[in-house]
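Q: Hi! First time doing this. I have a protein sequence and I read that you can turn it into a structure. Is that right? Here it is:
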Amino acid sequence: MNIKIFFTWWNRQTFGTFLKTLFFGKYVGSDEYGNKYYRSKQNERWVVYASKIEATKITSDWYLWIHHTTNKVPEIKEKKYSWQKKHLENQTGTQNKFKPVKIRKNEIKKKYETWK
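A: Yes, that's right. Below is the predicted 3D structure, encoded as structure tokens:
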């Protein structure tokens, strides 16, 4: 067990989540990113992240399961449609972030004339 678990919550799980998982958690499955999903006898559901905690790392299938929208446990081998893209976590702050096209001030065409 890593000593960071006692002092930081952003490294996979808190100490409380570690104890809860150890004593009450039943392993349900994992996703392609290595995140592990658990359930308690009271049908409480949670995730232990493979690396840093980031909520957008949960795929849409597991998101539905963890929020009690569906009771079907997702499988990695499920066939997806050809139009579905692979899940990506939030790309803000990375090289893949969305960056809109810059509009130069002189190129803006006003739909009105200003008063003089």
